[in-house]
Amino acid sequence: LNRADEARRAVIIHQIAHPDRPRSHIDQLYALIREGDLEALTKAIERVMADFKDDPDSLLSLGDFAATTGQVELARKIRALFIDHQWNGETAIHLMEIEALLTAKQYAKALSGIQELLNTPELELQFVNVGQGLQAIAQYGVGDPVAAYLSLTALLSQPNLRSESLLAIADRLLAMGQLKPAREVLDQAVILDPQNQAALSRLVEFDLNAKDMTTMIKNLQILVKMRKPSYELMTRIKTLLKGDNYLFSLIAPNYSKPWNFQ
């Protein structure tokens, strides 16, 4: 068996052992997407929806799958169930539906959904913040960078922002090629939480790609004092330094040869 077959077999075994848990079912959906088997994916989604239609927590997990993979119709069906049953979490599912639209690059529809969300009476601040970030992404998507930048500026001026939320927004901006705003959002994520290794790693990687050595080295010196960065990131940095072991050892003394990564 190859790795894909082994992974699929492990998922099936877990499903048989724990039929009431959604995780293995959702893992199977991701596997079908990787394999490009859309017919099997459609059938599997229908089965999962049937099995967990009365379980809001499982449906939230399924909604996250829909958001990250652009399964707009699935996200809409889940949101409809939350509305019909008046379950807590409908706003979160609404956001997942919007994220599914963004992932599917349906930016105009996403923007319409965001504006509907932001007009919700007494919307909690955390949802306002996320909505403003998604609004900026949608505005960049429809080709309105001025409005997008204003949305980002409004977002970054808000209190109680979460570094993890900003990192997710920055990742979407990077995927769209919006480098300048992505960098500003990453900067703010690190300012909010200097110990957020994921955000700092992304910032180092950004500067590495931009060949901004001065800033990259400054942030790298902070990063290497945390839990060890990935082997791939450190190898790329060493390659950029053209194999200069002495310079690399000055910047990251614990990462010079022999390699000692996790």
Tell me what you see in this structure:
The chain is mainly alpha-helical and 262 residues long. It contains 15 helices and no strands. It is globular.
Q: What coarse outline follows from CA principal-axis ratios?
A: globular
Order of helices and strands: HHHHHHHHHHHHHHH
Number of helices: 15
Helix/strand/pairing category: mainly alpha
DSSP strand count: 0
Uncertain stretches: 1-19, 257-262
The main pleated sheet reads as:
none
Radius of gyration, whole Å: 21 Å
The helicity comes to over 70%
Average residue-wise pLDDT: 85
Q: Beta fraction of the residues? A: under 5%
Layout of secondary structure:
Layout: H1 3-17, H2 22-35, H3 38-52, H4 56-69, H5 72-85, H6 90-103, H7 107-118, H8 125-141, H9 145-156, H10 163-175, H11 179-192, H12 197-209, H13 213-223, H14 231-240, H15 245-251
Helix pairs in contact: 1-2, 2-3, 2-4, 4-5, 4-6, 5-6, 6-7, 6-8, 7-8, 8-9, 8-10, 10-11, 11-12, 12-13
